[in-house]
Amino acid sequence: MFMNGIRKRFLKENHPETTVGMYANLMNFSAGVRSCIGWRFAIMELQALTVELLSAFEFSVPKDAPAIIHGSGGQALFPLLEDRPKEGAQMPLHISIFKQKA
Known about the structure:
Blueprint: H1 2-9, H2 39-56, E1 57-60, E2 68-73, E3 76-81, E4 94-97
Antiparallel strand pairs: 1-4, 2-3
């Protein structure tokens, strides 16, 4: 009787399916009851920072930049310079202050 109760506790049908992480299945905020209590605030701060950067600066690939190819690592793609793939992920960017047209 006691062993049947223990076995039922660990059956798959008694446990809801859980995800790996709190945000986008990443473990940067952990998960479950011991997850980071400030993860929503951290995500909102990152989004606000991204909006500020995109509205204040202009990002472009330099004209003299080498050709860029896509490298794959798991489920994500990352930029590699075609003539130097052994150096790892690189993305040459030209960053300038955004000038609004009057």
